[in-house]
Amino acid sequence: MADYLPTEPYRGTRDFLPEDMSIRSQVFERLYEVIESYGYQRYDGPILEPTEIYETKSSQEIVEQQLYTLTDRGGRRLSLRPEMTPSVARMIAGNVSKLNFPVRWYSHPNCHRYERPQRGRVREHWQINVDLFGSSSSAVEVEFVELVHDMMAGLGASRDMYELRVSDRVLLNAILSEVLEIPDDMLHDAARLLDRWQKYPQETLAADAAEIGLTDKQFEKLGEVVAAGVDVLNDLSQEVRDHSMLMQVLDTGARDLITFDPLIVRGFDYYTSTVFEVFDADPANRRSLFGGGRYDNLIGMFSPQQVPGFGFGMGDVTILDFLRTHGLLPDAHSDVDAVVIATEAALFDTGRLAARRLRAAGIRTTMPLEVRKLGKEISRADRAGARVVIIVGQQDWAAEQVTVRDLVSGDQQQVTLDQVAPAVQAVLEQPAR
Amino acid sequence: MADYLPTEPYRGTRDFLPEDMSIRSQVFERLYEVIESYGYQRYDGPILEPTEIYETKSSQEIVEQQLYTLTDRGGRRLSLRPEMTPSVARMIAGNVSKLNFPVRWYSHPNCHRYERPQRGRVREHWQINVDLFGSSSSAVEVEFVELVHDMMAGLGASRDMYELRVSDRVLLNAILSEVLEIPDDMLHDAARLLDRWQKYPQETLAADAAEIGLTDKQFEKLGEVVAAGVDVLNDLSQEVRDHSMLMQVLDTGARDLITFDPLIVRGFDYYTSTVFEVFDADPANRRSLFGGGRYDNLIGMFSPQQVPGFGFGMGDVTILDFLRTHGLLPDAHSDVDAVVIATEAALFDTGRLAARRLRAAGIRTTMPLEVRKLGKEISRADRAGARVVIIVGQQDWAAEQVTVRDLVSGDQQQVTLDQVAPAVQAVLEQPAR
Fold this sequence. Notes:
Two copies of one chain form a homodimer. Chain A contains 16 helices and 17 strands.
């Protein structure tokens, strides 16, 4: 026996056969449409980037454990992008003098991380990235809050299926230092503790708290802050409130669209004010679907200029999983509307003329590649999802006509070549049942 | 001075800022539309593949000089795909029992090759791949000939701008062995000589011919074959003619769509019959734009089954260059139709309501993020390419109205929130001048 190479894709990556691809495309095209309705412009960049741009800014976990890195034949160290943000920061920095800020950009790159494959974790995923650069106005936050809700609505999700939870680094730091009186050098550890709050039992958290140096009283108070939710903000000074983007959002009509949640911390170090996450509201499946926030100096490693920004990334695995759980996945599209069947080889060129007319009218049309029994070809057309067959037979064609048959109703009619496209179009516009 | 990282993309790769991305997207969306009008289904696959699938089948040049290869943390050797064909062969082989052949598939992957960057050569390019698997009928050739012409027409190219040149390995081998009496073990070298025919002067070719063992007479005859074009086929035996896909195509109406050219050899070893290339017809720029052909055992490294196929790849660099040369590049699209301007912060929530109505109607709408002078905002909207501004001012809004202004005609009208989307739509449907 010969040795054959395996046909599975590399572990943690996925083949998208046409059916899966149709679903993925439909989901993301809906999202593109919503994002573009907000005036965002699509961009794209290389998948290989100099490794340094990740070493400078990405999380330690990414750099030390998850990066796919290679050295090219010229000795340059390159990595497959694990996230899009450093790339877009590089592009903004490189074009900062010719861009008219604010700019609204989005992209849909594939990103690679070396992960242990498991539910919701893959090594190559497709992530929509949406960013607004060049504005420090809290109107940016409002725009993103509305955009996120419209994206979820575009996917068919109703408001009870998910929650948009927000926090703010400025508020969080103020709560920790003003209300809990935690010293500055312990803020980072305390924030990490909040980030872990819902994932671990109280005893573990208490032990962690003790380890980072919190008193029992501070730990208790932290629990009260978490329980108090938005009310905790009442205790903050006016100066903090003025400085917080989120407080300004809470003064607008957008306040009803968000839930304040001090537990939203997010892992990346670059967020400087508002942070948000969208959660599946299903109690059995309470996962973060995606999130993002405000960063005030993202391009710092490339340029002395300060360009504030706000953005988020939404990965395909998590969102497709959410849609599946809630019964919102679209069906795969059929890829053919009409099949032109020539009943004998001599009529093949005539069939091609008919197919040509149909395609020119935007009707997706195939022709069988060999002459087989008519009944068999009609069944094949039906199975392939075609609504119409166009039969090119000797007798009809002697009168310069072809037969158009609606595979749903069974109705058929003889038409000339000039009439074939309008006749098929008319059938396609009729409801399937 | 601080040290900043460079903002250029990795050598041989490209950033697509929104303007470039708009052009690339428009060009390829036209191609997708044409390809889908033939019933082809889109698929996708991972960018990382096991290195072995290239070592087995790709050209020596790719494997030894051009592959980007890395070893993952589990010790697996992986490569960034240099071409899509091995990936699609893997997918077909892995799903051969559940696919309904013939299948028509297309994809649009980015591929990586370590090349010395120069005109038309980059290290990351985007390549449309179109393949039909599972049919040995010459109707496949006819379908591809028509598809290629329709793709070029879809890009705005007229028939005089390019040439579709075809040959056939079966015919080529027969010409070399029957007409030129070249022995079997020299066929490969003789084919390579033809491949180089137009790129080198006669003396170089003559020297090469001598080196591979051709007689002067055979070399002279080779020149006659090249000069004779399609007439050379008259000298071939009926058996060869029956066995050649291309001869069958020349018996159909599609014969007028192609030019026989024995110099079309193509580098890859896997083509087994028809091969074609599309050339720029501009004498100053006589380059191959893209090409492909028939392969009869592409999945052989993955499976004992034989699945014949036909396909081609079309890269973005060459085709965009062709379109640029012929003045066919589309303009970048504007990314916004309407701008909603609230004249004071208190009216911001009202402006959002108007923007919401517009976006729900599919109108791409932005809102300024701060309140600035109205005239200044209107100029910004105009520069951004918006056709309409919607002004939300104190006085209008007291009467529950907003102002819709056409930035082209200067006409404006007061409408209620319910009327704002239809009113803007009506303006957008009017010609720009």
